[in-house]
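Quick check before the chapter quiz. The format below is the same one you will see on the exam, so make sure you can read both the input and the output lines.
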Amino acid sequence: MKRSIFCVISAASLLAFPLQADPISPIKTIELSSRLFAAGEAAKDPILVLAAAKLRKQTNPVQTDRSALNGESAEDGLLGWADMLAVAETFAAGDDALLGLIEDARVDATKGVVTGPVYNIGKLASGRTDTYPRIDFKGGEYAEVYVEAKSAVDLNLTIKDSQGRLVCADSDVSHIAYCGWRPAESGGYVLLVENKGSAATSYALMTN
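Here is the expected output.
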């Protein structure tokens, strides 16, 4: 059944909102896009999935060769905006108005930061933890770390300072985890990513 024109107008309003609101950090934008996508996928709602893709497209993350100590590499651990649009198309099948919005999103030029946050891809077996060598953050500047699994598992994130003291932890039952803090001074921090799920997963770890 085709959706009403009201749905199309609502979609346009929702997609415009992130561009009109006060800007949030690229990493928080990526986190929001993941939450929107998960909600849209669960509800088979192409409008939510399209909004998630639009948000992700404007962040422009950059992949690095950073890796965990003795960690396992993976080729694919970050869901891209094109993948999200493909899911939106599936949910919008038969609705020409929404399919048009999805195609518009596909051909739109990338907006937002020129160079976004950096990320690397890893793979974790069930019950295993990846430990990263010290990563430097500048004192007085807000630091952000984000992890996102591509499958529906439970990822936990823990940050410790150079003395082994806990700085931040996110242990919510979710396929994503986020930590943000403001270091008092510049220094290195140890990042730990734990797979609490029952299956192995690839994941992306992102820092600002």
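If your answer matched, good. The mean pLDDT is 87.
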